[in-house]
Fold this sequence. Notes:
single chain, alpha+beta, 6-stranded antiparallel β-sheet, 17 strands, 42% helix, 16% strand, Phage portal protein, Portal_protein_SPP1_Gp6-like
Amino acid sequence: MAEPMDEDDLRSLIADMWQLHMQERAWLDRIYDYTKGLRGIPAVPEDAGDEVKDIAKLSVLNVLAGVRDTWTRNLSVVGFRRSTARENDPAWTSWQRNRMDARQKEVHKPAVTYGASYVRVLRPEGGRPIWAPRSPRQLLAVYADPSLDAWPEYALETWIDKTGAKKRRVGHLIDDEWVYPFDLGDIPQEEKDPNRSQPISPHDFSEPYRHGAKYDGEPVCPVVRFVNDRDADDQIVGEVAPLILDQQAINNVNFDRLIVSRFGAQPQKVISGWSGTGGTALASSAKRVWAFEDPDVKAYTLDAASVTGYTELLDSMKASMYERAGLSPAKNGKMVNLAAESIAMASKDENEKIIDKRESFGESWEQLFRLDAEMDGDSETAVDEAAEVVWRDTEPRSFSQVVDGIVKLAQVDVPIEALLPMVPGMTQQQIRAIQEAMQRQRAAELTAMLRERAAGRQVPDAVAG
């Protein structure tokens, strides 16, 4: 076993990794701000009035968050077992213990947004492994070969400690054997956003400790990466960054629409050849009939500007953005009153992309289950090598269509219990209750048959078979 690093080497490594982390954070923070609608405000001249500047701030029509949420709503893990098993693998208890039914969104959302997210696993002394979802803004993982390696060489994690009277920035460095806790000092009160500022150099190290993480018997850095999509050039690709220019264009068109709505939507009254005081001009604007003694004075009304063209353009731009994102045309509101079969056909590309994400995330969840099992080796947690993640079915299908298919499969002796998860809207608890009820019914039928045989009665061949 390797000895822990000395403080000089540790300080140098943390400084290098933090510099790399800050370079990535500049890009990640930009994605974060656009997803939250904090960036993309249309530019206005410096001498523009406050009203125009306020309209510019209101013109951010955030579509990116909707794109992100559409993908994550279709990513929900509901089990971990063999395809032929009725019960979840014993390793599923670790999922429940870490409350991942609710917290899995903390993994899927940043992965879809930035392209990657992480789950860091540490086991407190005398306790069970704890899963901690982390976004790439919170944790930096360094790989020898990012495209091939399943485990990082090092992971650097920092956070704000709010337990004391003053906020402090703390963190730890993790390698394949050791956890190195460190303190970066108090956060000055003048820092408006402590998560984005450059921290001071580590000046206080706590005693390092072994984390004991192993995979296939080999020590590993206990950080599992979840990748949204891969590209040969960019390595990791999120769903937000490719759509930022589309979001900027939508904001600018919406700004024009709000300007027209604010300043041009009401009829404008014009009087040429006359100048009056503010009071007389205001009184004239309220009149339906105007009369002027000077024959050269003319008054007329300009038609109100229409925002219909801007609204139609925005609808077209949002539809194009959904298409670029790979989402179904049904998301743009143009496909209404269609049968489930028609919607399913229109959602083919979206469903295929969801399948890609599930395959990528599923491999990472399975890796996490096996890591947890080895870290918790003295428990009953064991992982079946053939077990795999089960995803909640979100593909649009009509209830009657699915039931008809199940009936036809049951007629050729396919066990109906295995087909129940295909029924739309049926929860795991409902499926379990139906399966148990069917088992009780079969047990009752078997008991009745045995009793009849014991009584010497003739049992019909159909029942005996």
